[in-house]
Amino acid sequence: MVHITPFFLLSIATGISLATPTERTVPQVLADINVVSTRVTSLDNAITAFPLTGGSLVAALGIHTSAGTVITSLKAATGNATGPVDEIDGNSILNAVQAFEPTIQHALAEIVVKKPAFVVSMTEDKLIALPVGGLPLLILQDLRFLKGNTTEFSSALIENAPESLIPAATALQNGILESFDTAISAYT
Q1: In this structure, how many other beta carbons lie within 10 angstroms of the beta carbon of residue 82?
Q2: 167-181 burial string, b = 16+ CB within 10 Å, else e?
Q3: In terms of domain of life, where is this protein from (predicted)?
Q4: By the 8 A CB rule, do 118 and 139 touch?
């Protein structure tokens, strides 16, 4: 005979409630966007600081690490949706993303400009880029992961946006994804 104790039932109920996704509030979504924005800024700073010649392997791997933190924050921000939001909250969310969109664009443009710095190359007498092969492939992988997670994150936001904001949100998403395509193409 199986005895079901109140503790056993409570454990099952707690496990079910922990497994059930909860909706985030708009302030939580805005906080998540702020984390993503901060991490995108750090990534942009790391890319911008990397020199066209004479960069270090540590700095190059720092760019990879920064990309990883952006990916992690995008995944976390995508986790639980808010559900449909009203016009005021939708505008707040859209404005928060629009505020750091230029930083995304700058980082993607800079990573294209800096590609020669990641390719092993030499002049007749000196090394002009990093002496380690494979960095362009690592950057390509990061770009693909970033694009995929950006797509999921932005699609989740658009899915819950009020109808009136969907065109602007979709245009913002498309512009960012096109810049990812340009950067990915440069490393392919």
Answers
A1: 21
A2: eebeebbeebeebbe
A3: Eukaryota
A4: yes
Are 123 and 164 in contact by the 8 Å Cβ rule? The answer is: no
What's the angle, vertex CA 39, arms to CA 182 and CA 84, rounded to 5? 85
Is residue 65 predicted with pLDDT exceeding 90? Answer: yes
User: In this predicted structure, what is the pLDDT of residue 27?
Assistant: 93
Q: What SS3 class is residue 119?
A: coil
Cα gap 87→106, rounded to integer Å: 29
| DSSP type of residue 134 | T
Percent of the chain with pLDDT over 70: 79
Q: Give dist(CA 98, CA 74) in Å, integer.
A: 16
CA distance 40 to 74: 10
Evaluate if pTM is beyond 0.70: yes
